[in-house]
Write a structure and sequence with these properties.
This protein is an all-beta fold. It is about 0% helix and about 45% strand. The strands form three sheets. A three-stranded antiparallel sheet has the order 1-8-9, with no helix packed on it. The chain is globular and about 35 Å long.
Length: about 80
Protein backbone atom coordinates (compact mmCIF):
# COMPACT_ATOMS: atom_id res chain seq x y z
CA UNK A 1 0.00 0.00 0.00
CA UNK A 2 1.39 3.44 -0.80
CA UNK A 3 2.14 5.85 2.05
CA UNK A 4 -0.96 7.06 3.90
CA UNK A 5 -3.28 4.98 1.69
CA UNK A 6 -6.68 4.71 3.38
CA UNK A 7 -8.53 1.57 2.31
CA UNK A 8 -11.74 2.87 3.87
CA UNK A 9 -14.16 0.99 6.11
CA UNK A 10 -14.94 -2.31 4.44
CA UNK A 11 -16.22 -5.86 4.95
CA UNK A 12 -15.29 -9.20 3.38
CA UNK A 13 -17.39 -12.21 2.39
CA UNK A 14 -15.24 -14.48 4.56
CA UNK A 15 -12.79 -14.16 7.42
CA UNK A 16 -9.35 -12.79 6.58
CA UNK A 17 -6.12 -13.51 8.46
CA UNK A 18 -2.71 -12.14 7.63
CA UNK A 19 0.50 -10.55 8.66
CA UNK A 20 2.27 -7.25 8.14
CA UNK A 21 5.60 -7.58 6.29
CA UNK A 22 6.42 -3.85 6.42
CA UNK A 23 4.34 -1.22 8.11
CA UNK A 24 2.89 0.43 10.02
CA UNK A 25 -0.81 -0.23 9.44
CA UNK A 26 -3.62 1.49 11.34
CA UNK A 27 -6.07 -1.32 12.05
CA UNK A 28 -9.47 -1.32 13.71
CA UNK A 29 -12.33 -3.80 13.84
CA UNK A 30 -15.61 -1.93 14.35
CA UNK A 31 -16.39 -1.69 18.06
CA UNK A 32 -12.78 -2.33 19.08
CA UNK A 33 -9.77 -0.14 19.74
CA UNK A 34 -7.55 1.19 16.97
CA UNK A 35 -4.12 -0.44 16.93
CA UNK A 36 -0.98 0.20 14.95
CA UNK A 37 0.40 -3.02 13.50
CA UNK A 38 4.09 -3.25 12.66
CA UNK A 39 6.16 -5.73 10.64
CA UNK A 40 5.81 -9.23 12.07
CA UNK A 41 2.41 -8.64 13.64
CA UNK A 42 -0.74 -10.49 12.57
CA UNK A 43 -4.38 -9.49 12.10
CA UNK A 44 -7.83 -11.05 11.79
CA UNK A 45 -10.78 -9.47 9.97
CA UNK A 46 -14.06 -11.20 10.89
CA UNK A 47 -16.57 -11.90 8.12
CA UNK A 48 -19.16 -9.15 7.68
CA UNK A 49 -17.72 -6.81 10.34
CA UNK A 50 -16.47 -3.40 9.15
CA UNK A 51 -12.74 -2.90 9.52
CA UNK A 52 -10.25 -0.11 8.91
CA UNK A 53 -6.86 -1.04 7.42
CA UNK A 54 -4.83 2.06 6.46
CA UNK A 55 -1.14 2.45 5.63
CA UNK A 56 1.07 4.68 7.74
CA UNK A 57 3.46 7.35 6.49
CA UNK A 58 5.97 4.77 5.20
CA UNK A 59 3.42 2.69 3.28
CA UNK A 60 2.80 -0.97 4.06
CA UNK A 61 3.25 -4.47 2.72
CA UNK A 62 1.11 -7.31 4.01
CA UNK A 63 -0.08 -10.82 3.21
CA UNK A 64 -3.78 -11.59 3.58
CA UNK A 65 -5.44 -15.00 3.39
CA UNK A 66 -9.16 -15.20 2.63
CA UNK A 67 -10.71 -18.29 4.24
CA UNK A 68 -13.37 -19.20 1.69
CA UNK A 69 -15.16 -22.28 0.41
CA UNK A 70 -13.77 -24.03 -2.66
CA UNK A 71 -14.69 -22.01 -5.75
CA UNK A 72 -15.72 -18.92 -3.79
CA UNK A 73 -14.05 -15.66 -4.86
CA UNK A 74 -12.78 -13.11 -2.33
CA UNK A 75 -14.82 -9.92 -2.19
CA UNK A 76 -14.51 -6.59 -0.47
CA UNK A 77 -17.40 -4.19 -0.03
CA UNK A 78 -16.82 -0.63 1.04
CA UNK A 79 -19.17 0.32 3.85
CA UNK A 80 -21.58 2.71 2.18
CA UNK A 81 -19.93 2.06 -1.21
CA UNK A 82 -19.63 -0.34 -4.12
CA UNK A 83 -18.31 -3.90 -4.05
CA UNK A 84 -14.81 -4.58 -5.36
CA UNK A 85 -13.56 -8.03 -6.43
Amino acid sequence: MPPRFAAGRHVHNGPVVGGVAAGPVHFQVEGGPETVLKAGEVFHEPVGVPVRFDAGAEGATFLAYFLLADGEQPEIALVGGASVE
